[in-house]
Amino acid sequence: MLGLILSIIVVGLIAGALARLLVPGRQDLSIPMTILLGIIGSFVGGFLGYLIFGRDSGSGFLQPAGIIGSVIGAVIVLLIWTRVAGRRTARV
């Protein structure tokens, strides 16, 4: 169980960091928020993969397609986050 939690955190950090590198502009996110971005992106990427391909991850947790899906999901979540957070800031 501890190994699963650690692998989720590591994959979340990698996916979140890659998403922050791929999305242009400045994102004011801390390291824990980057990990959370990657974890949420993993869920979004897994859900989209299930919708598109109709299969679950029966081959295991860590696989290249899962990491790529996590990065794509994290990019989608980060783009939504920057658009929503950009509207809430007060412009003087």
Automatic annotation (TrEMBL):
The chain crosses the membrane at residues 29-53, 65-84. Pfam families: Transgly_assoc. Its main location: membrane. It is found in: Cell membrane. Keywords: Cell membrane, Membrane, Transmembrane, Transmembrane helix. It is a multi-pass membrane protein. Belongs to the UPF0410 family. This is Uncharacterized membrane protein YeaQ/YmgE, transglycosylase-associated protein family. It comes from Friedmanniella luteola.
